[in-house]
Every structure is written in C-alpha cells, then in structure tokens.
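Thread: "does anyone have the structure for this chain?"

Original post by V.I.:
We have the sequence but no experimental structure in hand. Need at least a predicted one for the grant figures.
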Amino acid sequence: MNDAQLLRYSRHILLDEFGDLGQQRLIESHALVIGAGGLGCSAALFLAASGVGHITLVDHDKVDLTNLQRQIAHSTERIGQAKVTSAQQAMLALNPDIRITALQQKADPALLDQLLPTTQVVLDCSDNFQTRHMLNKASVKHRVPLVSGAVIRLDGQLTTYDPRQAHSPCYACVFPPDQAPEEISCATMGVLAPLVGVIGSLQAAEALKLLSDLGSSLVGRLQMLDGRSLAWTEMRLRRQADCPVCGTDKRS
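Reply from O.Q.:
Generated one for you, tokens below.
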C-alpha cells in the first residue's frame, strides 16, 4: 500500500483483527455484485469505500424515479441512465483507486461461468427466485461463497452459503427450487427504505469478512430482521443430503 492508501484505510488497519494484512487482501480481491437496486447500492458503496480492488456489478435495468426512495447510489440527475453506470459513478466518487466492471445485462449461466473463476465472493442483491437459484448453482459449481440478502415490505433476511465448507447448505437446501413462492416485488408490496440499507450493508460486511479472513461467517445461520420492532431472530440451517444442487451425490 502507498501512503495515500494507508491513510484512506487507516481505520481498518487500526483494528487488531484486521490490520494491514486484511486491507491488503481486500485490495487484491474481486467481488461480484448481482443487482444494483436497493441492496446492491448499499453493498457496492461499502465495498468500494472499503477498498475491494475489483468490483463487478451486473444489472440490466435503468434508473427510475421510483428507485430513488431507497437506491442510494443513484440520483435524480441520473434517471434514465443504466443502473450499473450510475452506481459506478457513485462508487468511484468515493474511491477512485479501485477497478469497477459495470455490465448492463441480465446475469445468465454463461456470464457467471465467465466471472466466477476470478471472483472470491458473490453478493446476491437480486430480487427474484429464478436469479437466486441460478446464482446458487454457479456458486456451488465454482465453489465461491455466496452472501444472500433479501428485503420486502418490513422484513429482511441475511445469510451466507459457502460451498468450500462441507457442512454448508446452499440456497436450494433452504428454498427448494420446486417450491417456488409467489413472486412479490417492491412495486406491488412496498418496502421501508432503510431496511435495504441495513441488509445491503451487512452483506458488504459479510463479504469483507470472507475476503479478509476476519471472524466467522453466517454459514448455517439465517438472520431475519423484523422492521416493525427492529428485532432479529436466527434460524439454524442444515445442508440437505438430497438437495438437487449440493446434495451428497452432487459434491465432488
């Protein structure tokens, strides 16, 4: 690290559990963020500010007026602009020393097969069941940890799936693909704006911990936030031997 980086990241370096080695690991890391909406904006901004050296951001959508209530990387002046481009501008304004790859497209298996071999962590900031399962399959296939967040109305969820760990469940263990819930969205159900910031920021925290080898992850634990009371509850998760994605006969 040069003198400017030592100053920029000094509050990380001061942490005994983190130090200059942890920060150097971030600088040398590549994180993939799928979705530049409410969760993705908060997560990506903190990854950028924290010094993750390469961040790839994937989203096909454009900034809309209705996004601005909660998607804090965007602005009124950037309505109509690609979300990934808008978020890239906000991230570079925070930290011009990092590299950002902005891809205005929908994530698909081919793209994930291209990106994951060089990625150390994936953040699922998407908003639909199909994309979540596609990301999960790619995560298991390439053995890359997946930090999953979700928010709707007044409820939030957060966990980490890490296929490098034999005991870790995957998304399909918890939410079987043949039991798809009714798709709901912020456009029809609403969402309390700060909750996406809370969950997105915690996704960034989980990713930073994984990248820097700090503490323990949320593997095997699903954190659920009730925005009405601001109370957290935790559910223990187990890998399912008959899981169609990571079950015993699927793992190498």
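V.I.: this helps a lot. The two ends are 38 Å apart (CA to CA).
O.Q.: and Residues 49 and 93 are 9 Å apart (CA to CA).
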